[in-house]
Write a structure and sequence with these properties.
The protein has about 650 residues and is of the alpha+beta class. The strands form four sheets. A seven-stranded mixed beta sheet has the order 1-2-6-7-5-4-3, with helices on both faces. Strands 12-14-13 form a three-stranded antiparallel beta sheet. The N and C termini lie far apart (about 105 Å). Helix 3 crosses helix 9, helix 9 runs antiparallel to helix 10 and helix 17 packs antiparallel against helix 19. Among the domains are: about 170 residues, no CATH class; about 130 residues, Phosphorylase Kinase, domain 1, CATH 3.30.200. The longest helix is centred in the middle third of the chain and has 43 residues. The protein contains 21 helices and 14 strands.
């Protein structure tokens, strides 16, 4: 009996042990439960259902639209939470939720096996950027502000959308260079699009224009039949009524206007400029073509009312500028050159055609030209461009009739526009173009106060020996670089000097050449005046008093320092325009500024003070100078800070 009890106990113990082992194995093999998906697919599902989206037979195309739809959902998720993608443990449930959405218009279509997407794709990142804060830590405010100015608007039309995409592409190529490390969902290429849809554009990621521009999804076609019929009926009624009114009140006017315009267009000859490929051509090739109008002298006279003095809007050493209106209503600016002869017409025409092929947002675009000989006026050379309604920078700085001063944001925009335009002339055009006459009157402003550099390349068009100066050096007194004025040495950095002078005028409201006290003292240069303040540590005193909407002190001081550095009398000390643009657009510091040589018009006290300072080998000021060695000579440098720094870091000195 005892033996049976022992056997029974042994059997029960073995059975219990086997159950415990089986339970432990099941616990080990079964995966942890997935977290619920935090993404909201409601907006995307509503858009799909309301527009009756149809699937394509092309699986790759369907996968592309599915990926774009997921980016739309991620953009909405970023807007609500500040995170670019859901947690990794929710990836499985998110894909299942998206499968149910896709199943409404592509039945039995499983996204991951059909499109080759991995489960982790929905939660992977670019350059370890998972939140809005991390994105804004890598991308500087200047790039984000540029994207805001271009993307924070309705993106339904082509032009705003193109500007926005260009800005986002530049941002990605400059700062998000980590590559495609997360499949094709939220990689570095698409991260700016998700950011713009969720945080920049105030219409939000559910707006049809935003969806179409940023995510290439067009939901504008799907209206129900009733709404379409109502809209069509309203459109028909409005169109019929408008046509009736046009026939009654405006038929004759429209007919005469169109006939007059056709006659005008028949008279106009269109010149197509093709890039030359012959090796024997002595003129440069720009590798593209453009259209340039050749106007008759009668058309120019009719537009300017025979060069009436009431239409005169500018005078210069090259000639006068008149405003005019063409027959089709286009407003133009007409530049009429002085002292012309027929001998150089062929060269003039080709130069104008080459200049017309150079296109940039911050350069004045040529519309056409005219070459003619008249009985009373003699030989004429004229160029035509679009009229800038806000005039020139010179007008806004010095015309007493314009009482309102330019605000700091507008001046900052103008400064950056000038720099971009010049940088394009120096490094974007092939071959490079040196302007030679950068001054405030050659910086034109459009309706939005965007700077447009004018008259680039026009120094080539004048008779030999004719310029603003008594020598063959082209330019305007006060703006010409010393090495160009003294020795005729012309480089791109001659334009940099002139840019620095104009930037000082823009910041201070003072002219390039300052008159003495009450007009009695000796004139001085604005560059010397600004340098005297900077070397004392008072850079902000350069800023014009009473300027509206002042910016941060650090930003304004940065612009003053770059202006002083660009207008340095020694060529080696100036940066290139490409470097200037990078400094103004980013958080890069301004390189230290070397000491300047003694001015030609310096007072005796200044010379003695400079000599005594040089004898000690170190400038003793509160402005933050330090000696920087170049070869066997020491150059005192100013870096814009009070404390001393390592001279080896100031490589630009």
């Amino acid at each position: 009996m005892r033996l049976l009890l022992l056997l029974l106990l042994l059997f029960l113990s073995l059975n219990l042990l086997q159950q415990q082992q089986s339970s432990a194995q099941n616990d080990t093999v079964s995966p942890p439960s997935s977290s619920p998906c935090p993404l909201n697919f409601t907006t995307l599902k509503t858009l799909i259902q309301s527009t009756n989206v149809k699937s394509s037979n092309d699986v790759a195309l369907n996968c592309q639209y599915i990926a774009e739809g997921l980016r739309l959902v991620l953009s909405q998720y970023l807007k609500l939470t500040g995170n670019f993608h859901p947690p990794r443990n929710s990836a499985e449930s998110c894909w299942n939720s998206y499968d149910s959405v896709v199943d409404s218009f592509i039945p039995n279509f499983k996204i991951r096996p059909s499109c080759g997407f991995q489960t982790s794709f929905i939660s992977q990142d670019c350059m370890n950027i998972t939140t809005r804060t991390e994105f804004e830590r890598i991308v500087p405010n200047s790039a984000i502000n540029d994207a805001v100015s271009n993307c924070n608007q309705s993106l339904e039309n082509g032009s705003p959308c193109a500007s926005c995409l260009t800005s986002l592409t530049t941002l990605q190529a400059t700062y998000l260079t980590g590559g495609n490390n997360s499949g094709n969902i939220s990689d570095c290429v698409n991260l700016p699009l998700i950011y713009a849809g969720g945080l920049i554009n105030h219409f939000g990621p559910s707006d049809l224009g935003t969806v179409k521009c940023l995510f290439s999804l067009d939901f504008s076609r799907g209206e129900n039949g009733s709404n379409k019929r109502k809209k069509m009926l309203i459109i028909v009624i409005v169109v019929v009524g408008f046509i009736g009114l046009c026939f009654v009140f405006g038929g004759c006017y429209v007919f005469l206007r169109l006939r007059k315009r056709r006659r005008f267009q028949k008279k106009r000859r269109i010149v197509r400029v093709e890039s030359g490929s012959g090796s024997g051509s002595k003129f440069p090739s720009f590798g593209r073509s453009t259209h340039l109008m050749k106007f008759s002298i009668d058309e120019i006279k009719r537009a300017t009312k025979n060069f009436h003095r009431d239409n005169l809007i500018g005078k210069g050493g090259y000639g006068n500028v008149y405003k005019g209106v063409l027959v089709d209503g286009t407003e133009i600016a007409v530049k009429r050159f002085k002292n012309c002869s027929a001998a150089g017409d062929a060269s003039f025409t080709h130069e104008v055609e080459v200049i017309a092929s150079i296109r940039h947002f911050n350069l004045v675009e040529l519309r056409g030209y005219c070459v003619a000989t008249t009985k009373y006026e003699g030989h004429q050379r004229i160029i035509v461009c679009d009229l800038m309604h806000n005039g020139s920078l010179h007008d806004h700085l010095y015309e007493q009739s314009l009482d309102k001063k330019l605000s700091w944001p507008i001046r900052q925009k103008i400064a950056l526009g000038m720099a971009r335009g010049l940088a394009y002339l120096h490094y974007g055009a092939q071959p490079a173009i040196i302007h030679r006459d950068i001054k405030a009157s050659n910086i034109l402003l459009d309706d939005n106060f965007e700077a447009k550099v004018a008259d680039f390349g026009l120094a080539k068009f004048n008779p030999e020996g004719f310029s603003h100066l008594s020598t063959r050096v082209a330019g305007t007194m006060g703006y010409v670089a010393p090495e160009y004025a003294l020795y005729g040495q012309l480089t791109e950095r001659s334009d940099v000097y002139s840019f620095g002078v104009v930037l000082l005028e823009l910041l201070s409201g003072k002219k390039a050449i300052l008159s003495g006290n009450d007009g009695q003292g000796q004139p001085s240069l604005v560059t010397d005046w600004a340098w005297s303040l900077v070397r004392k540590g008072h850079a902000l005193d350069v800023i014009e008093e009473g300027m509206p909407e002042l910016g941060p002190d650090s930003v304004m001081e940065k612009y003053v320092l770059i202006a002083v550095l660009c207008s340095h009398p020694q060529l080696y000390a100036r940066p290139t325009m490409d470097q200037v643009v990078k400094i103004l657009e980013s958080d890069l510091p301004v390189p230290c500024i070397p000491e300047r040589p003694i001015s030609f018009i310096a007072e005796l006290e200044d010379i003695e003070r400079s000599a005594s300072s040089s004898g000690s080998g170190q400038l003793s000021t509160s402005g933050g100078f330090q000696s920087y060695s170049m070869g066997n000579a020491d150059f005192p440098c100013y870096n814009g800070q009070e404390e001393e720094q390592d001279p080896a870091k100031n490589l630009k000195c």
